[in-house]
Write a structure and sequence with these properties.
The strands form four sheets. Strands 1, 2, 3, 4, 5, 6, 7 and 8 form an eight-stranded mixed β-sheet that branches. The protein has an eight-stranded parallel beta barrel with strand order 9-10-15-16-17-18-19-20, surrounded by six helices. The protein has 18 helices and 20 strands. Helix content is 35%, strand content 19%. The chain has 538 residues and is of the alpha/beta class. Bound molecules: acetamide (ACM) and zinc ion. Acetamide binds next to loops.
Length: 538
């Protein structure tokens, strides 16, 4: 009898251990604290989502849509304190901090702001997706979660310059970002190969600059063949506003990037006087860095940029405007009488200082409109203001950049560039072409990003952001974009969100649940990691 009792107790303990683990073994990014609690609650098609204030109606409605497939119905959202799922605010919690409690009475989410409640709902969405399906509905084990993010700017960048993605696709990108508690959509809107944002003052930017006549086929470094097929597209200002609103409803801020003074061939093709030489330009049809850049000697170039940025400011409410600054060769400036005169007149040492002069002027213009700049890490050459935020992409510059004391957003390419191969050789050969040949970023490597590596605790505050970047030279379709982004975005999101020690194996187990959510949502992702072929020896 005693033995039977022990066996029963052991079994019960085993069962409760399994239930205690449920929430812990599901949510990505991993919450700060997850504790098992007594009881369980079954969410059904009839469960009401009760919201304490009108501000929470929209996040609740989004949640109701998210779990409609799981429950076979869109849950009713009602203002008041009645419902199996109750949402409320508590201003003693931080802006992005929430608690999520599941007990036999129901589910309670309390957040510092509606944004924080939305993050609680994203966690709940994952729990519902992974919950036990019963005849009544979906059974959720008791749990008590306390959660808030490590990093304030958790970004995802999409390059729409190399290939245009439709409004619906951009919204889908935002939906995917929201699942991962990303709060910044960095929209790389202009490139040598295409200008994608309507600027009313400069209609040629979209009339001419948004189209290229064809696109290179094969490796950029060697190929001389082109597909002969025009490619183009741009977003009207109405579409931009619609996307900004769509993102804001998901608590994602859109930070636009107008890349300058390099990566501007599409603008030069539209308005040739913007170049250093009196010549015509074509929207670029191959990848890589162009020697043709904005002439920063002529005053008309400043007028142009300010005209563009004035409209950008009216379209995007973000505090930050990304003004590029990367990969700008100095050759044209070194041969241009206007640029050389500017160097002389301003007492600048060289072309590096000329770029800084340009960046400072644009920064000043934006500051007059109460906006701040973000620039790629090349902007440190020639000097920057303390007010500039540096987006670090060259890993080798990491300690140099973080030692400056400026705000930093980390996007080190060997951890955060989602265009890189996600498999080691020989499997990478199956992944298609890549602009930066032979660069590999496995899921494990993306996960291993430590935002504070090499820093003293007193310096941690400089790291304002962590971001995944999707460059699209060889990403012509949104299907491919998703396969590039996922599942690695989940790893970057956890590096940005999760407070405390990380554990890749634990992450990988949780990812098996998130994968099912991707499946349910019709989101594509690469399966190399799941198939166990991403880290085969070379
Ligand atoms: C970059 O990858 N050129 C920022
Ligand atoms: Zn010039």
């Amino acid at each position: 009898m005693k033995r039977i009792f022990i066996i029963v107790v052991t079994l019960l303990t085993a069962v409760s251990v399994v239930s205690a683990q449920t929430a812990k073994t599901v949510i990505i990014p991993r919450p700060m604290e997850v504790k098992a609690a007594k009881g369980a609650y079954t969410v059904t098609a009839k469960t009401i989502v009760g919201v304490a204030t009108a501000e929470l109606v929209r996040p609740a409605e989004l949640f109701a849509d998210y779990v409609a497939k799981d429950l076979g119905a869109v849950l009713d959202v009602k203002e008041g304190d009645k419902g199996g799922i109750l949402l409320s605010l508590d201003t003693s919690l931080g802006k992005e901090e929430y608690t999520l409690d599941i007990a036999s009475k129901g589910v309670k989410i309390v957040g510092g702001t509606p944004q924080a409640v939305f993050y609680g709902l994203q966690s709940l969405r994952q729990l519902v997706s992974a919950g036990e399906v019963t005849k009544k509905g979906i059974k959720l084990e008791g749990v008590s979660i306390k959660d808030k993010p490590l990093i304030g700017h958790r970004g995802a960048m999409l390059d729409v310059g190399r290939y245009f993605f439709t409004v619906a696709e951009v919204k889908r990108f935002i939906d995917i970002a929201a699942i991962h508690k990303i709060n910044i959509f960095h929209w790389h809107l202009t490139e040598d190969q295409g200008w994608r944002v309507e600027i009313k003052k400069y209609p040629n930017l979209t009339k001419i600059g948004s189209k290229r006549k064809e696109t290179i086929i094969g490796r950029n470094s060697v190929s001389k063949t082109y597909d002969g097929t025009p490619h183009g597209g741009y977003y009207t200002q109405a579409e931009i506003k619609d996307i900004v609103k769509y993102a804001a409803e998901r608590y994602i801020e859109v930070v636009p990037e107008i890349d300058m003074p390099g990566h501007m061939v599409a603008a030069l093709a539209s308005y040739p006087h913007l170049g250093c030489r009196d010549e015509k330009f074509e929207v670029r049809t191959r990848w890589g860095i162009s020697k043709d850049v904005l002439c920063v000697g002529k005053e008309t170039s400043f007028e142009f940029i300010e005209g563009v940025l004035s409209e950008i400011i009216s379209l995007f409410p973000s505090k930050y405007i990304h003004i590029g600054g990367d990969e700008c060769p100095r050759l044209r400036w070194s041969e241009c009488p206007h640029c050389q005169k500017r160097i002389q007149d301003e007492g600048l040492k060289d072309e590096n200082e000329l770029q800084s002069y340009f960046m400072h002027r644009i920064e000043k213009f934006l500051a007059q409109h109460d906006r701040r700049i973000i620039g790629w890490d090349e902007i440190i050459k020639g000097g920057i203001n303390k007010s500039a935020t540096i987006m670090l992409w060259n890993d080798r510059n990491r300690s140099k950049v973080t030692s400056l004391g400026n705000d930093v957003i980390l996007t080190p390419k060997y951890y955060c560039y989602m265009d890189y191969y996600q498999t080691t050789r020989p499997f990478s050969n199956k992944e298609g072409l890549l602009f930066r040949d032979n660069r590999i970023l496995t899921l494990r490597k993306a996960y291993s990003l430590d935002p504070y590596e090499g820093l003293q605790p007193s310096e941690y505050g400089r790291i304002k952001g962590v971001q995944a970047n999707l460059w699209t030279e060889y990403v012509p379709t949104f299907h491919r974009a998703q396969e590039k982004l996922l599942p690695r975005l989940a790893a970057t999101a956890e590096a940005a969100w999760t407070i405390g020690a990380k554990d890749f194996d634990d992450f990988a187990r949780r990812l098996s649940h998130l994968r099912k959510l991707y499946d349910k949502e019709g989101i594509h992702y690469a399966t190399y990691f799941f198939d166990g072929v991403d880290e085969l020896a070379e």
